[in-house]
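seq:
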Amino acid sequence: MINLCTATGHIGKPGAGYGTITGQGNGQGGREHGQKSDLLPGGRSIMNEEHRRQICEIWGIEESELPLAGTSMMEKVWQMRRREIRGLIGICNNLFVSLPSYRVVKEGYDTTEFHAQFDFFLSETAANAHVVFPVTTWAEDEGVMANAEARVVKHNKAQDPPPGVRTDTWAMCELARRLGVGDKFDFPDSRSVFDELRVASAGTVNDYYGITYERLEETGGIAWPCPTTDHPGTPRLFEDGKTYHPDGRIHLQVVEWHPPMDPYDDEHPMSLTTGRTVAHFLSGNQTRRLGALVEQTPRPWAEIHTSHGFRNGEPVRVVTRRGSEVFPALVTEAIRPDTVFVPYHWPVPTAANALTIDALDPRSKIPEYTVCACRIEHAERIDEVPAPPVAPGHVAHPETQVSRTDPLPPTAPQGRGTSERS
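struct:
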């Protein structure tokens, strides 16, 4: 897509450019400032000597204390299975639903000696952890996010958290203090974390230095780079036609095609592809607890072409080399005859990602969620959707249970109306 934009001249001008719509609310901001294991704040590379020196000076550490590039999350799971990673802390991720090849993921986590999880609802992954830290939601603390157009916005605290619940900033800093490195995590609140980020990003392509809480309150949002506190921000990059490459020119990125890692054969002649549905968000840890959304889209389904001889709602077994699951059929001419679609927001035994393959793209390290070999079969009974986990002493909201055993698919890929029951 980026190659297409640049080749057609759709860059650096109004109404042009490429913007990826990420799944996470702050997916853009996280990737700008070191969320990936090969990055440092400000879009710096953790393998670049000058970038390492700059960050070590800001953080007051020796370069030997800064690790080299790490691995992707799926690779970490493989390392956990090999006991190369013996413990970890997860922050609001639900990999038992969102990573491919559930059996491999479960084995990796079960092999670890210690697993702690931060979350505000008890996810399937958190329910498997040794320790769970209940932390605040975004509405129970203030902070900043970067949206899809690289505009930094501030959200304010709307309400107090339940008793005993702390911010993730507090929990991380307190853990650091008890582990003897509290001086490296001396942040009383989210604002102090952001102020360090401003300094750490100064002079980089993702320069936040001129963005302050006060300016965000006044303006409603500022686009980076913003190098000084009187700079208006940069709503549009590359207006002068120059890029960050040393020669200033636009470079098309060459992508070499390779066949899917899960080969087709007589036993698995079709493609399983997975994705999202409008009613649910990511692993569904929040939305599977909301009655209206559960009623609209109570369960996953197998979307298949009319030529396969199924009727709407009929049990269809989807079989891959990782296993099989039974879903209600959503029969439509809007899908290719050689393809099956299953949305991924639910856990086993109705998890699309129990069927997908844990093969990775060699460059991006993103799993092949959207293509694996499969076949479909008639089945007797549709697999029941499990209820979301609840903490000890808590009861699930009754309205989320009404539709949980609903065997019907939605009447369209977008889900049924909130009062539509047939």
